[in-house]
Amino acid sequence: VGSIDDDGFDGAVHPVAGPAFRESDVPFRHGLVHAYAAGTGIYAEGDGAERFYKVLSGVARTCRYLGDGQRQVDAFYWPGDLFGFEPDGQYRLTAEAVGDCTLVAYPRLRCVIQDAAEYRCASQLLDYALRGIERAQEHALLLGRRCALSKLAGFLLQYDSHRPGHRFIELVMNRQDIADYLGVTIETVSRSFTQLEHDAVIAMPAAKRIAILDRARLQRIAEQSGGA
Amino acid sequence: VGSIDDDGFDGAVHPVAGPAFRESDVPFRHGLVHAYAAGTGIYAEGDGAERFYKVLSGVARTCRYLGDGQRQVDAFYWPGDLFGFEPDGQYRLTAEAVGDCTLVAYPRLRCVIQDAAEYRCASQLLDYALRGIERAQEHALLLGRRCALSKLAGFLLQYDSHRPGHRFIELVMNRQDIADYLGVTIETVSRSFTQLEHDAVIAMPAAKRIAILDRARLQRIAEQSGGA
DNA sequence: CGTATGATTGACATCTCTCAACCAATGTGG
DNA sequence: CCACATTGGTTGAGAGATGTCAATCATACG
Q1: Are the C-beta atoms of B182 and B151 separated by less than 8 Å?
Q2: Which of A72, A113, A133 is closest, CB to CB, to B141?
Q3: B157, B169 Cβ separation under 8 angstroms
Q4: CB neighbours of B153 closer than 8 A, spacing ≥ 6?
Q5: Which of A44, A152, A212, B102 makes an SS bond possible with A192, Cβ 3.0 to 4.6 Å?
Q6: Interstrand relation of A32-36 and A101-107 (parallel, antiparallel or unpaired)
Q7: Could A141 and B87 be called an inter-chain contact, meaning their C-beta atoms sit closer than 8 Å?
């Protein structure tokens, strides 16, 4: 029996043209692979939650649009991440492709697991769900800290942890995405980047290309709660 | 076969003196009931995650203490809520009793579900986990909104939803708890309460006793993103 | 009644937002 | 190859919100 991790894609994956079926897993045999262009919507808040998704390549985001047009980004999802789990029948957030990305869509999780083959998947999904809680809690912790510099430092460390060992952090999202994720404005994000660069904590040869020069200091900045 | 909801306690529950065993569910047969006094620690960040908990009575909180002594409250847990799920072997947050409360502790969830009787529970736990994601996401959304008044309004509505229909909201936590949950200071919480009262959106006969006078307006305040 | 604790209020400093201008990189057409 | 526009990012000045520190008030408890 296969598993949700065994989707035939390993590591870096090229986007595929059309949808493709997977026949291995029992509740996941209808996994459909789709490519999304940068900025494309995957699903919208309020839509019926028919599917959940796994990222194969690229980065996706979930967010909520507030009444006055403001946007709050909830999370960025990396290759291997699952999103779109919903306890009830509809999505509570909007999902969009940050850059070009490829996803595999699985049919909605049934609340009552019925046959034996599904149990293995339930166990696996449970693990993913716990990771989702962890992710959301860390995000809340990040947002609760007051100082913008601290938020950005936390974001960079979090980002770097997805691809450790690389010389440069290549930001796939723009300043607006980061701002909405951190709950600040793009100007504040920009100023914080500039300050980190000025203090020689990071280097920024290009706006979306960051190198961490002093990781220990970055971590200290991330851990401090406010500007005081 | 029983379920995790079938813990023999229904609705309001009186704290019991000592631990008590439950023999019904297979992975949950070792559910231990314990009473915690107000302010007592339930587990600490970094402890081995041996158990997860269900609230029977009272309210518990999970939080993280930052390096400089600052505290960020992650969530409040109400009767019926589960907390303490961890994907890895140790707690990432500290859990404490807000007021006097009674909990039932279940042995740690195994990652690999082995016997058939556990499957039913896995399905149930998955549902709880999804609720946990929902809760954490809503909290992050609350924190991302900038204006303190909006955060407090959101908190009051969230609080009220736990006991709808009551004339008064009886706050079980103090101002510091609320402040740490919303990521602001107690002074700002206090000022926001005062403003809501001044604007006749709420009434506050006592510091911990709130009545919502104009729910529609409170919702509007909660939805606006900033002070602008 | 005095004390202790929690909550509120006030004054001022600081941070972030807002609005505006400017800069850099990119692409287009002449 | 060079204007030119467009987009995304940065910088600046002033306004507004929240933090900080301190004093005051309210309540509960001896």
Answers
A1: yes
A2: A72
A3: no
A4: B196, B201, B218, B219, B221, B222
A5: A152
A6: antiparallel
A7: no
